[in-house]
Amino acid sequence: xxxxxxxxxxxxxxxxxxxxxxxxxxxxxxxxxxxxxxxxxxxxxxxxxxxxxxxxxxxxxxxxxxxxxxxxxxxxxxxxxxxxxxxxxxxxxxxxxxxxxxxxxxxxxxxxxxxxxxxxxxxxxxxxxxxxxxxxxxxxxxxxxxxxxxxxxxxxxxxxxxxxxxxxxxxxxxxxxxxxxxxxxxxxxxxxxxxxxxxxxxxxxxxxxxxxxxxxxxxxxxxxxxxxxxxxxxxxxxxxxxxxxxxxxxxxxxxxxxxxxxxxxxxxxxxxxxxxxxxx
Length: 280
Known about the structure:
One of its GO terms (biological process) is monoatomic ion transport. The chain is of the alpha+beta class and about 280 residues long.
């Protein structure tokens, strides 16, 4: 009778400990994920290395093409391809094992990221080269760094580079990245690697001229019909007639075909819509 409360307390404490352990597991997994996503040093990166209470071991240098730096007391140290924390540990171990510093505390600071970069070209707001700061940087991250797709840009993106030493090319339909399910979007939002080039093509265009309110080129939205294109152009003016609408379309052989489509027929990139003047 006396032991029962103690057994209950012990059981309660045991369950609480299990609960704490279960809560700690996701945190450890998250920490491992963050470690895997840490930036890895590459050729051309500029770094500053500081050893606590050892100012004579402070060094600012550039990682060579072979991934090597020359560090005081240690000579050539290969840090290319290592995460920042791994490079710090490598230098600290070298100083400790060589009996140069008893308990070295090494800090490596990235001053310039040149070793891992990707380019964004085409119809974006800020084309250029951008650093790959984490190993899990994705296509949408790179596109965001470039300011997103410009108003003249289309939905089709082309990512090219190398994977496993072989040429790599992937065509991505941007709306599919934000598809109905997270898994589908994640599959299309691929991870960017060093040297990748992202190309954003221009949006498809149709041209309207003749007896319309606002003739000229316009963006062809996905699935846009002839009626929608005419509406975007302000519709027919008082002299225009629906019976006089013709669409000029270039075929695969390069020859232009003249068609008289229905109002609900879809247009294609490069179509020229001509609205004739009514004779009555």
